[in-house]
Amino acid sequence: MDRLLTSRLALIAVLALQLFCAVFFLFDGVLDLLGPVVPTSLALGLAQGDLFEWLLGLALVISVVVTALQVRRML
Fold first, then answer.
1. Percentage with pLDDT > 90 across the chain
2. Is the entire prediction scored with pTM above 0.70?
């Protein structure tokens, strides 16, 4: 493989991982808000977070956007 294709695939893999983490932490934050409404067993035991998870989710979303812009520029 040439280097450009390898770097593109690496950026796409990083973007996919970041997107997964961002969705997970934001989903967990929503479950924190719905904690009294949704039983913990239904919430898959994820409704035990705090503000740190919201901030981490937000940072991951920003990171996903930046990486997506880099991938778009490369393609």
1. 0
2. no
